[in-house]
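Need residues for this backbone.
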């Protein structure tokens, strides 16, 4: 029996009923501009303030440190360009990051490189985790920013953020983390983890698309990205996305309340699939088995193309990805898988399955009914697989 399974929750998630319910009044009758003085505007302003308080509470921040943005990409751009500009004013133009960041970070940094900044890319090794000692060794007198993601969007590996943050704090260097994949799935306390800036995006935790936030610790110097009105404490102009931020706050509270339950269910789903799929010959799990998001599976199957695998999975009702949604459309293997040291031909046969609210063990069983057959079918047609088998002899 064909079944519809959405297994691409790292690309985006379904809006939760609770978030939609919270948003509805601000998409309909309560449409006032949050900056207007009359009572209709006052309602929106109160809702925006309340959303800021709720988000701050989940992260261990104060409301004054939460700045709303149009999503994760904007938050990353703002944190990085803002800290780079502030650094330049002090004659500091060196930035440290990791090789496997999201493109919202990597492409922002290559734009800065063209403007004369020097970027150090820390390796992530076979397990997909940055070493704290590598960061310590890379820091220079002129380092103005360290930006390292909390959890990787392709292989789900979780970085030692508190330790990395402690190194930066000791040296007085601003520390930014792209936590878009982690927020809602991992317990985060920005104060305990020594984080100066943190990016998040609502649509990755069952909130609406096109809205996110940047946490900026009080005292962190970041210049303005969007000039205009006085919104977001005069640091990010534009009429408040009232419904969006209300939906984001509601979704985040819900994600925090249901985190343990969801992680337990995701772990059950993923353990089952990983154990079963590893029985397929010449398959491998990418990234550390333990230090990863509970809902992430990233595997390679030698001798096949990730794209063909996705098409056949889709034909069977399963939405999955070969890596990042942002790199599909290009035929290059993922920079994340290459950063683990995987050869091109193996990185090509990758599959990412990511689970969230709504997924069940029945989904997992259905996937494992379909996947081995598809891999077998594709290998039977693959000249690459023939030569792998030939070499085995
Ligand atoms: C999705 C994602 C982004 C981009 O967020 P948008 O809200 O889609 O702009 C940035 N970083 C990571 C790690 C992501 O997974």
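Answer:
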């Amino acid at each position: 029996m064909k079944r519809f399974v959405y297994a691409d929750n790292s690309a985006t998630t379904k809006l939760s009923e609770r978030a939609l319910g919270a948003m509805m009044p601000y998409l309909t009758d309560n449409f006032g501009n949050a900056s207007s003085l009359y009572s209709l505007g006052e309602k929106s302003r109160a809702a925006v303030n309340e959303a800021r308080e709720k988000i701050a509470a989940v992260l261990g921040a104060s409301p004054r440190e939460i700045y709303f943005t149009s999503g994760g990409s904007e938050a990353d751009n703002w944190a990085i360009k803002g800290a780079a500009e502030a650094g330049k004013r002090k004659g500091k133009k060196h930035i440290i990051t990791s090789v496997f960041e999201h493109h919202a970070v990597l492409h922002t940094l290559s734009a800065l490189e063209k403007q004369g900044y020097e970027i150090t890319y820390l390796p992530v090794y076979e397990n997909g985790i940055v070493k704290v000692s590598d960061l310590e060794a890379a820091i220079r007198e002129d380092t103005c920013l360290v930006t390292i993601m909390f959890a990787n969007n392709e292989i789900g590996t979780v970085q030692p953020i508190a330790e990395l943050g402690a190194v930066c704090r000791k040296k007085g260097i601003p520390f930014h983390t792209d936590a878009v994949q982690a927020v809602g799935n991992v317990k985060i306390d920005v104060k305990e983890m020594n984080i100066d800036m943190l990016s998040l995006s609502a649509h990755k935790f069952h909130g609406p698309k096109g809205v996110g936030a940047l946490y900026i610790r009080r005292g962190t110097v970041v210049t303005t990205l969007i000039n205009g009105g006085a919104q977001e404490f005069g640091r990010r102009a534009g009429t408040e996305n009232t419904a969006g931020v209300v939906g984001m706050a509601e979704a985040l509270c819900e994600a925090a309340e249901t985190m343990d339950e969801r992680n337990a269910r995701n772990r059950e789903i993923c353990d089952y699939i990983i154990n079963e799929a590893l029985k397929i010959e010449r398959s491998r799990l990418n990234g550390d088995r333990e230090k990863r998001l509970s809902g992430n599976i990233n595997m390679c199957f030698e001798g096949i193309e990730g794209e063909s695998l996705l098409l056949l999975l889709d034909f069977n009702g399963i939405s999955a990805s070969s890596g990042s949604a942002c790199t599909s459309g290009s035929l290059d293997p993922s920079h994340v898988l290459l950063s683990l040291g995987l050869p091109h031909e193996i990185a090509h046969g990758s599959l990412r399955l990511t689970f969230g609210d709504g997924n069940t063990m029945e989904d997992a069983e259905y996937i494992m009914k379909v996947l081995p057959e598809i891999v077998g079918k594709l290998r039977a047609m693959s000249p690459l697989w023939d030569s792998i088998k030939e070499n085995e002899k």
